[in-house]
Amino acid sequence: MTDTKKSIHGQWSSRFAFILAATGSAVGLGNIWKFPYITGENGGGAFVLVYLLCVLLIGIPIMMAETMLGRRSRQNPINTMVTLSEEAGADKNWHYLGWMGVIAGFLILSYYSVIAGWASAYVLKAFTGSFFGADATTIKGLFDNFMASPIQLTFWHSLFMLATMLVVVRGVNTGLEKAVRFLMPSLFVLLILMVAYAMTFDDYYDKGIKFLFTPDFSKLTANGVLTAMGHAFFTLSLGMGAIMIYGSYLPKDVSIAKTAILIAGTDTAVALLAGIAIFPIVFAAGLEPASGPGLIFQILPIAFGNMTGGWLFGILFFVMLVFAALSSSISLIEPAVAWLIENKDMSREQACIRSGLVTWLLGLGTIFSFNIWSGFKIFDRTIFQLMDYLTANLMLPIGGFCIAVFAGWIMKQQHTEQELDMSDALSYQVWRFLICYISPASVFVVFLHVVGVL
Q1: Cα(305)–Cα(313) distance, rounded to whole angstroms?
Q2: How many Å apart are CA 254 and CA 247, to the nearest integer?
Q3: Region of residue 309 (phi > 0: left; psi between -120 and 50: alpha; otherwise: beta)
Q4: Which residues fall within 8 angstroms of residue 248, CB to CB, at 6 or more apart?
Q5: So where does this one cross the membrane (predicted)?
Q6: How far apart are CA 120 and CA 132, in angstroms?
Q7: In Å, how far from its chain's centre is CA 162?
Q8: In a 3-state reduction of DSSP, which class is residue 378?
Q9: pLDDT tens-digit readout, 363-391
Q10: How far apart, in whole angstroms, are the C-alpha atoms of residue 399 and residue 396?
Q11: Inter-residue contact 220 to 47 (CB < 8 Å)
């Protein structure tokens, strides 16, 4: 099928370009913002070990499957599921899987852009010396005042959405590919600089390494295991249409298996490097690693404001956070843009303007949930909490589960063998066992956990 078909949107110029793009989609706020604090909350090394096993057994097989679906169809996720379910002689309702992925990415970007706007604002705050000599009370006041201002939050949300759409409107080669060729190397350089900075703290650096890599299973709970499993799945951008649409731009001669392993490995390396960079700074400042979501915006600014070189490295850190967010945001909106182009006969410019505007408007709900609508709740959740719960806890696990089931049980085996084109039969059989049994069962357990059954 992919021998003759090509996406109307173009394709990546090389395997390296796809790796950068897919890694950029995977590497985001989850790696640098979320991974360090959930590691801190769950005891460190033992949690990291479980997380790595989950990436290997769940993340990589599902990433291979999602990439394979996209490349075989060469269309947006919705049309992909229509085409491939017809090819497999399966129920036509599989197209709802494509819809769920596109909508999930769309909803995630609406609040992701708001959080990325925080990081953008903190670049300016770090540059102007707002953290200098500040204590916990000062930093908390700074953050609370920022959250209480819908005008400030809307400005930074708008700026970030504009940057995202300016990249996406330029298309696959001159937009997405050029952006990730700049963003990803820059991100790695900034991350290495942050690690080098952390190494200057001597004993605290050793303490951070020990905390991150020395397993202490007495500190790991059943909830921690499930958290590691869920994060391994979500951090790779699976189930939201991003990897599927990027896979549709992948040249036929590129090995899906090798590429997926490299992307997952790089994404994991970024998360670990973020931990190596952050924990020594936290320990050196006498702060608590289990500080929750506020670790980045309310804890690290205290450290940067009271350390030698903290002004410069505070700026670099939040620039790195913005780059990571931007590389992910362009992949979140691309499936919706591709669908509008393919199904509604729009130009890329029209599709970007309409999808970007709707996303921006939805983001206002997240902004107002932190201030003027903070008392308005649906099912006892603010708009932001509801959007986050629906996507991360419901839509993505269901999407990942369905991708595994479709690739393992619905698609014809000869088609999956043809697309994956693995070098030996054993490697294919290992993938097939994982995608048919281990991956869907594991994701199902995570889903039962997040809905409160386990």
Answers
A1: 10
A2: 10
A3: left
A4: 7, 9, 70, 71, 73, 74, 75, 76, 80, 338
A5: 12-33, 45-65, 96-119, 153-172, 179-200, 220-247, 259-285, 311-341, 353-374, 394-411, 431-451
A6: 18
A7: 19
A8: strand
A9: 999 999 999 999 999 989 999 989 988 88
A10: 5
A11: yes
